[in-house]
Amino acid sequence: MPPTDFRRFSCVLAVTVFMLLKFLLLDANRPMACQGKDSESSGLNAVAAAARLGAPIDDVGDLKCLPIGDPDSTDRETPEYHEDPRCQLYQPPSKLVHVIMNMVVGAPNQGRCANFRDGCATKAPYDEKLRQFGGDWPPFGYTMIGKQRLEQFRASIHEVDRNGIGGCIIETGVWRGGAMIMAAAVTSESNFGRRNLYLYDAFDSIPGYGPSKSFLENTEDEVKGYFKLFGMLDHNVKFVKGMFKDTVPEWQKGTPIAVLRVDANFYDSYADVLYTMYEDVSVGGIVIFDDVYSHPAVMKCWTDFKRDQNLKEDLVRIDKLSAWFRKIEDVKVDQSKRLPPQDANKSQ
């Protein structure tokens, strides 16, 4: 897809977002109608507010767990109990976050990319199941992770807020920044406080993009522009440009991390992140692997790291490609266990 097409769409979207935000702000300032005891929102709003204020797990009322497992398998299920360690609670989004989530995944009337190999030069009709589970590329979207992974990312932020887990939010591999735009919106509304958000990306073309180069590459300035488009570019949003082997080791050790989302494709890139940042993930914090089931090298990196560091955490599957876990104990990462470069960091 020519970059000019996306820029033209972004200009149109800017006007649309402005009008929607204006409506939401006006709606928020209107006096609320009286609600009787039978009002649908009378109980739900109280629960959502309690969760946002840091209520303990037994005070979340009727909030349900998110579904887990491969959507193409009979093993997909929804945990029934909040005490199930695989449970992450679905908390209804605010109107602002709801609008942003729908925007960043791409609208149905924009279709989908028909071919991953031609840079979205050809389009196909929208497919809801593909978009639900991140199985397509949205021509005019801002994230490729799909609705379920975006929902799980949001649930992770709400969980660490609810449980008072300190630290920043990091995503390594951000494309157009859509997932972190959503994260910025969620943290902007949180009573826990606005967390620092770190976006690690090459913000440039990297080997392997091939014919899809123009669709996949984004500059730092372009992604900053998308944050501005949604009104989410603020002092707490940090951009870290460069290859992970160069930028991740410069992480300020000792800085707490509440949510760490890794989308990095390669063994070495995951190893860069885990060997540098895992120690700083707070106990109770959430770690998300976007492509652990789609890239064998990524799964091997995780299984090697888990074995070599004697970790007790197990993956909880989100969909066909991705998984998450909750950190349950502090560890001192044994750097001597790290293997030499396996793929992305090998000398060319």
Strand and helix layout:
Blueprint (H helix, E strand, L loop, with lengths): L2 H27 L10 H13 L42 H10 L7 E2 L9 E2 L3 H5 L13 H17 L5 E5 L5 H12 L7 E5 L11 H4 L3 H10 L7 E5 L2 H4 L9 E6 L4 H11 L3 E9 L6 H13 L7 E2 L5 E4 L22
Mean pLDDT: 86
What's the number of extended β-strand segments?
A: 9
Annotation field: number of helices? 11
Supply the helix-strand structural class. Answer: alpha/beta
Helix percent reads 25-40%
Strand arrangement within the widest β-sheet reads: 5-4-3-6-7-9-8
Radius of gyration: 20 Å
What is the global morphology?
globular
Through-space gap between termini = 30 Å
Verbal overview:
The structure is a single chain. By secondary structure, this protein is α/β, with parallel strands linked by helices. The protein has helices at residues 3-29, 40-52, 95-104, 128-132, 146-162, 178-189, 213-216, 220-229, 244-247, 267-277, 296-308, and strands at residues 112-113, 123-124, 168-172, 197-201, 237-241, 257-262, 281-289, 316-317, 323-326. It has a seven-stranded mixed sheet, sandwiched between helices. Strands 1-2 form a two-stranded antiparallel ribbon. The protein is globular. The two termini are 30 Å apart. 36% of the residues are buried. Mean pLDDT is 86; it is low at 25-58.
